[in-house]
Amino acid sequence: MKLKKYTKLLNKYIPGGAHTYSRGYDQFSENAPEVLLKGDKQFVYDVYGNKFLDFGMGLRSIGIGYNEKKINDGAFRQIKFGNNLTRPSLVELEAAKKFVNHFDSVDMVKFTKNGSTAVTAAVKLSRGFNQKKIVARCVDHPFFSYDDWFIGSTIIKRGVPKEISDLTVMFKYNDIESLKKIILQNKNNISCVVLEPSTICCPLTNNLSLKNKCCGLADCTNNFKSNFLLDVQNICKENKIIFILDEMITGFRWNLYGAQNMYGVDPDISTFGKAMANGFPLAAIGGKEEIMSIGGINKKNSERLFLLSTTHGAEMSSLGAFIENLNFYKKKDVIKNIWKTGYELKKIFNDLSKEYDLSDYVKMAGIACSPFYICKDQNKKISNSFKTLFMQEMIKNKILWPSFVSVCYRHNQSDLQKVKSALKKVLPIYKAALKKGIKKYLKGNSIQPVFRRYN
Predict the structure, then answer these.
(1) How many beta carbons lie within 10 A of that of residue 264, not counting itself?
(2) pLDDT digits (tens, 9 = 90+) for 255-312
(3) To 5 degrees, how large is the angle CA 4–CA 8–CA 14?
(4) Is residue 340 part of a domain?
(5) Percent composition of the chain: helix, strand, coil (DSSP 3-state, to 5)
(6) Using CA atoms, how far apart are residues 371 and 188, in angstroms rounded to an integer?
């Protein structure tokens, strides 16, 4: 693939060409904008002035919209106060109190700048608390941290000692027997279980009529009084294992009080990030006082655990943005809007796919607040090439449509109509590519998996 001007420069100065691999040029079609200049509400603009309706929303870090005045004002107020002071700031205390009071499972919180450090801190806390070594993580959830305990359990093991890789074991989502099996195999040595509450499907219930089903509606109809997450929680309690829920994506999207509230679980430790400050860099680890307090300094004669120590972890501007973001969510019912829009987007997409007789090849699925799309080839096999073609054609219609679709509060009926109009142009091309071969229509290389061993 011949790299363009900005892509060449990005890869010259930045390993991977971006500061998260999901933004890399290998994750987008060749006609995607190389560099974005700005975002405003649900739109982004490239350096040439082209405007795109965006369904990436800062890799799901934007829940309301880009450049939101109320959120920006909350950040600007704190910038004017100095942004980073020699002692804890007043807004640091205010944000911590607001966070703790908001989430039922949280007694104490520590702020940081990204999800990787938050989840790794949760793992360290767990090991320090129960003096066990092994981490059990869900194999079906794509990313928890850039640190060795996680990356060493993926296909990209370079740079990670085998001794560390061997300390992470895996179980399957919605498969409680797979968790029971690894607990049995690692008797009394598992420190913590790490998983997301949900990704592309709901936790299974014990109601046979609902098993393996997602209602897909704007208002979820499933009864979660009995589910996989509750089973995980119970097993963790029985075996004195720390139960960690990674709510980077589900938090501020599934439910105002976290997916844990929706599914009725009470994790020992939770981690949040992404949309919690509407794009401002902020993540958090929160949990029970008994566990969190071992990272403190006020218990005399107790052995210390060095938890998180980050100069910019409690940067005032991001905390000011978080406070205003949470206020906005409560006042405007952002979550309900996201669910409704996601449901309507799925319906438009799938109705048109059916109309063009493509339901077996391209469709949207998943939970309404976080839908995803599937592209298949002539043999009805999942295809990155056809996904790239779809992305390419949507971009031609000025819609930036990444691999992971993200709906925000600002997406509206007019935007949904733009998607509908674009699909009426894109789907016939997809159908022609199935018939005549994709090489005739796809320009450039196919997108690649982020987790691959070789470039």
Answers:
(1) 14
(2) 999 999 999 999 999 999 999 999 999 999 999 999 999 999 998 888 999 999 999 9
(3) 145
(4) yes
(5) 40, 15, 45
(6) 38
